[in-house]
Predict the 3D structure of the following.
Amino acid sequence: MPRFSVCVEMIFRHLPFIERLEATAKAGYDAFEFWQWQDKDIGAIAAEASRLHLKVAAFTVGPNIALGTLVDASNHDAYLETMRTAIQHAKHLDCQTIIVTTGNEIAGVSRAAQFDALQRGLERVAHAAAEGGVTMVVEPLNTRVDHAGYFLDHGADAFRIVREIGHPNLRVLYDMYHMQIMDGDLISTIESNIDLIGHFHVADVPGRHEPGTGEINYANIFRRIDATAYAGHVGLEYRPSGDHAASLAGVKALA
């Protein structure tokens, strides 16, 4: 069975944020993740995670709407400054993985030029991650359903740029919901690029609900991940279609 992490931004979202951690523990899970840190009490999260013996699997550098896009080189300095603050919070939370999103494409600028800027930005991200003792995972997202205009929307592009940079502190966050919508061919892609994957996200298609509600054969995918050397977390980032705790029990039964 993979090492699951509960995304408490989507699961138990009906509860106050800090109460979601206890709900995660009561559901039998030992790790959680969240999105941006800017609107949260990091000290309270660290204390509650310690009390409940929960691992903080991942969180994001921050919302790109505030940070700007990494495909614009003029934003890199500000992004790196925010990222260094996130690294300090990661140390407080004993979290080794921080999620990076690229932001949206820039109208009127060639895709090649934007890729060049993104690569230069991610190189700086990787070096700062190494200095801070964390791993950054860059996430491609789908542009057909959820994130129109997002720049990095195909797995192949994410793997290519991370492979070209070649830094051990930069990996790909492979979200199977987003990549099923954009690319399909999940198992072959995972097995061919497992050395570049630093984190997974899980939700079914269509609807972004729990595994078992849509077209993705997650039972088989989980077995294939288990057969690799992957030792990171698989984040459950889905919208429960019914009772939240029951959906989490169903994921364990499926795995």
Observations:
- The longest helix spans residues 111-132.
- The two ends are 6 Å apart (CA to CA).
- The beta strands are 3-7, 31-33, 55-60, 97-100, 135-138, 170-175, 197-202, 233-236.
